[in-house]
Design a protein that fits this description.
Blueprint lengths: L11 E4 L3 H14 L2 E6 L7 H5 L2 E4 L12 H10 L4 E3 L9 H9 L3 E2 L4 H8 L1 H10 L7 E2 L6 H11 L3 E5 L9 E3 L5 H16 L4 E5 L5 E9 L5 E13 L2 E7 L6 H17 L4 E9 L5 E7 L6 H8 L3 H9 L16 E8 L1 E2 L5 E2 L2 E2 L2 E3 L12 E5 L6 E2 L6 E9 L2 H13 L2 E3 L5 H9 L1 H4 L7 H4 L1 H4 L8 H26 L20 E7 L4 E9 L2 E5 L4 E9 L2 E7 L5 E11 L2 E6 L2 E8 L22 E5 L6 E2 L4 E7 L2 E6 L4 E2 L11
Parallel strand pairs: 1-2, 1-4, 2-3, 4-5
Antiparallel strand pairs: 6-9, 7-8, 7-9, 10-11, 10-13, 11-12, 12-15, 13-14, 15-22, 16-17, 18-21, 19-23, 20-22, 24-25, 24-31, 25-26, 26-27, 27-28, 28-29, 29-30, 30-31, 32-34, 33-36, 34-35
Helix pairs in contact: 4-5, 12-13
Length: 670
């Protein structure tokens, strides 16, 4: 592999990642005039990041371990394409000190911190010990090396309950467990270790006191090889679910200027402790009395970095590349002047109403406002690695995109985000769009009062399970379908050149009274509703059991408007968007969104088997562990298998009390 000979920027960069972050890096490289090489697994052969790059290399393998985590394959690709440097994105190999060292020894640049910094910060225990020595406040707890149960129990008693168990390696909430009582500690340790070893290959943990009323505040920092350090201000990541970030914003609505300046100085002190070079994020937890404690220094770009980019106008990936190539920081601290307010939400293929279970499938409809490029200045930004028609597979995490907005102040930004979500749709896999729509409009979120426990405490308010859609939404969906069918029929008639054929007309004409169109809609709870529609000269008439309602309905593509008189005789008008794909409809309106299916009136229900005592998998996946033995007596609800899919573990439990006769699966099976 050839070492870059001449000074200056890199000529060609390999992006050792996939999805939206690979697309994000590739776009910046193109703007800078740098050639890019994409790597791809078998599942990603037709992915967006592959088509965006100048060159591509097949690393084979379906799972991350066989592809994007395979260091030898990545380095071989770099050699074959004679690249000058590797950008690891975030996740996968981004915080792997051994990989960074291998890159440098091979003569190829690593666009990230020095390997020694990655190694020091990769161990939470070592990081906290270093920070404590440097005078950076840390959360009280146990950060020692011993993992003996007796020692951990003793240290847990000393730390006090409630406490958190955290894996020494990794992040993103994987393996994190809250323990409220000593009796829960042993089971929680076992669960945390199992999840940590699957996610990071390391089952060691540390213990920390649980902070009441916690806020999660992080500072973006940058360092160069000349010893210069700057921060690009804070991001508030307090809106989380089970320690997984959902919404990030900047500036924080919780902080005042005095606290902001104090924490920024501490963040720079933390980065300076390890002579930090490149992009990093110093993460703090802040209690309700505004005392703050160091959590970790992430030695990579964060998922939420666009929030900082939108406020500062700075391309953080460009800074990474320039600093890795030996250039100084482009700006000094006094020249970094953020403005306005930015908010980001993470759009995921998951079903919030089913415990946020990850979802897979083909993106049959994928529409969002905004430029979608992730680089041009705009109030709306969409970072994604997916296009309409792409498949969401089981092998990678469920995040599909990051939606970011920027406005003059916080209320304007949240209002814009809500508006954008109302104009967005994803059909195919389940998504969290409705959940996000409710989250950004919640009064406590609007007031900036939500801490890291808010979502879990108010989850039922944020789900779409506690309401039934009003009648007018069903009427609008039925009328939109009716209009679409008429358009299709007219097109068939025009193509066939025979508009008089009964097969090329869509009306319910008959002698005598008009026969209503009967459209059956099924909601996501399985409830059915038949809508009976009659055409009149004045509009559409919806027939009900004892009366009828006159409707005025108009639509232009997905934008629809419905007007009618309510029970008080007042005229009501509602605007909404309705998206159709085959027999699936999505209606997005001011109160949320509804998913419905069209049922053919001629469909006949077959015999439904009783599944109450059958073992079923919630989604396709890989068997991570088998938890029982043949002949073992089990109780209802006892875990039999642990299935792994989309970087999450899903327990398969016994549907009833009984005895295990035979096990048909083993670890590693799909």
């Amino acid at each position: 592999m050839k070492r870059r000979q001449s000074p200056g920027l890199y000529r060609k960069i390999l992006v050792a990642n996939r999805g939206e972050i690979a697309c994000r890096v590739i776009r910046t490289c193109k703007r800078m005039g740098i050639l890019t090489v994409a790597v791809y697994s078998e599942e990603d052969r037709d992915s967006l990041h592959v088509s965006l790059a100048n060159e591509a290399y097949a690393i084979q393998g379906k799972t991350p371990a066989d592809s994007y985590l395979n260091q030898e394959k990545i380095l071989k690709a770099a050699g074959c394409h004679e690249v000058d440097a590797i950008h690891p994105g975030y996740g996968f190999l981004a915080e792997n000190a051994d990989f960074a060292e291998k890159c440098l020894k091979s003569g190829v640049g690593f666009i990230g911190p020095k390997p020694e910094s990655i190694r020091l910060m990769g161990s939470k225990a070592t990081a906290k010990q270093l920070m404590e020595q440097a005078g950076v406040p840390i959360v009280p707890g146990y950060h020692g090396q011993s993992q003996v149960l007796k020692v951990l129990k003793k240290e847990a008693d000393r730390t006090g309950y409630p406490l958190l168990i955290k894996p020494l390696a990794g992040g993103g909430g994987k393996g994190l467990r809250r323990v409220d009582h000593p009796a829960e500690l042993e089971d929680a340790l076992s669960q945390a270790r199992n999840e940590a070893v699957n996610a990071f290959g390391d089952n060691r943990v540390l213990l920390e006191r649980f902070i009441e009323g916690p806020r999660h505040i992080e500072f973006q920092v940058f360092g160069d090889s000349r010893g210069n350090l700057v921060h690009l201000h804070e991001r508030d990541c307090s809106l989380q679910r089970r320690h997984q970030k959902i919404l990030e914003e900047s500036p924080s609505p919780f902080m005042d200027q005095e606290l902001r300046e104090k924490m920024a100085e501490t963040a720079l002190n933390a980065a300076g402790t390890v002579n930090y070079i490149g992009a990093g994020t110093v993460e703090f937890i802040v209690d309700k009395e505004r005392n703050y404690f160091f959590m970790e220094l992430n030695t990579r770009l964060q998922v939420e970095h666009p929030v900082t980019e939108m406020r500062t106008g700075i391309d953080l990936v460009e800074w990474q590349i320039r600093i890795a190539a030996g250039e100084p920081l482009p700006l000094s601290q006094d020249k970094i002047k953020p403005g306005g307010h930015a908010v980001e939400v993470r759009i995921c293929a998951e079903n919030p109403e089913q415990g946020f279970l990850p979802s897979t499938g083909i993106l049959k409809c994928w529409e969002f406002p905004g430029n979608g490029s992730g680089n041009e200045p705009s109030r709306i930004r969409m970072d994604t690695g997916f296009r309409k028609g792409d498949e969401v597979s089981i092998h990678y995490d469920s995040m599909l995109a990051k939606l970011v907005v920027h406005e003059k102040d916080r209320q304007a930004a949240l209002k814009l985000m809500e508006s954008v979500l109302r104009r967005s749709v994803l059909m195919g896999p389940e998504s969290n769009l409705g959940f996000l729509q409710k989250l950004v409009s919640h009064p406590e979120v609007r007031k900036g009062k939500a801490d890291t426990l808010f979502v879990d405490a108010r989850l039922q308010e944020l789900l779409c399970t506690n309401h039934s859609a009003p009648d007018w939404i069903h009427w609008a969906c039925a009328l939109r379908f009716l209009e679409q069918e008429r358009e299709r029929t007219a097109q068939r008639a025009e193509t066939a050149g025979d508009s008089h054929s009964p097969w090329n007309t869509f009306d319910n004409w008959r002698i005598g009274d008009p026969e209503p169109h009967r459209i059956i809609l099924v909601d996501h709870h399985g409830g059915e509703r038949e809508i009976r529609i009659v055409d009149t000269e004045a509009g559409f008439e919806i027939l009900r059991e004892s009366d009828s309602v006159l409707i005025h309905f108009s639509s232009e593509e997905s934008d629809c408007e419905i007007t009618f008189e309510n029970e008080n005789g007042d005229s009501c008008s509602h605007a909404l968007k309705i998206f159709l794909h085959e027999k699936e409809l999505h209606a997005v309106h001011e109160k949320g969104r509804e998913m419905m299916f069209l049922r053919d009136a001629l469909d006949h229900a077959g015999t439904v088997e009783d599944w109450d005592h059958r073992l079923t998998s919630p989604m396709p996946g890989r068997i991570a562990r088998v938890c029982v033995q043949p002949g073992e007596q089990v109780l209802r609800g006892q875990t039999l298998l642990i299935m792994e899919a989309m970087k999450m573990e899903h327990p398969i439990v016994a549907p009833a009390e009984g005895r295990v006769e035979k096990i048909y699966f083993q670890q590693g099976d799909s």
